[in-house]
Amino acid sequence: MRDLELIFIVDENWNIGLNGDMLYKTKVDLDHFRNTTEGQVLLMGRKTLEALPGGRGLKNRINIVLSRDENYQAENIVLVNSLDQMEREIEKYPDKKIFLIGGENLVKQLFDSCTYAYITKINHKFKNFDSSIPNLDDLDNWKIVKKQGPVDDKTHLLTFLEYKKIK
Length: 167
Ligand SMILES: NC(=O)c1ccc[n+]([C@@H]2O[C@H](COP(=O)([O-])OP(=O)(O)OC[C@H]3O[C@@H](n4cnc5c(N)ncnc54)[C@H](OP(=O)(O)O)[C@@H]3O)[C@@H](O)[C@H]2O)c1
Hints:
This protein is of the alpha/beta class.
């Protein structure tokens, strides 16, 4: 399996979503997401796809979407129905980075293959949430290698962090 890179916006408890939506969206993070992932491959679960604008794949990126529904259709996606099929699909792009963009369910299955993470941390603890990702600050084998911010978006302070798995 190829190395995967996580890219998520999380709150202080590493929560990411509620009722199918992201916990928080803000232009400065959406720009960061676009700049980081443009031209590369995105890997996502069907529910994360449906949280994207219009429920379609993002432009200027290859959007590989996992669903067990073989008839699932959406604009600008490559549908795969299993992790094996997904693995074969990403082998077609040896020169591109593979970003795992969500959600919790896929991260649970693929975390062992993740070696790098772009994390935007919101300095806030949301009261309501139903999905999260592992807290990399609590894991000895993940280290912060880059930190930018905090940036004030007028609602919250956001810190852009990059983590690397070291063993
Ligand atoms: N804050 C952030 O940065 C961020 C980023 C991304 C997502 N999110 C949030 O995370 C939440 C979605 O996460 P989630 O965990 O509920 O869902 P998810 O991981 O996005 O999607 C789960 C779906 O993926 C498909 N799937 C999973 N494993 C599969 C496998 N091995 N083979 C084939 N298909 C497979 C299934 O689709 P079918 O049911 O169609 O079979 C499953 O229901 C939303 O609230 C979203 O907004 C937040």
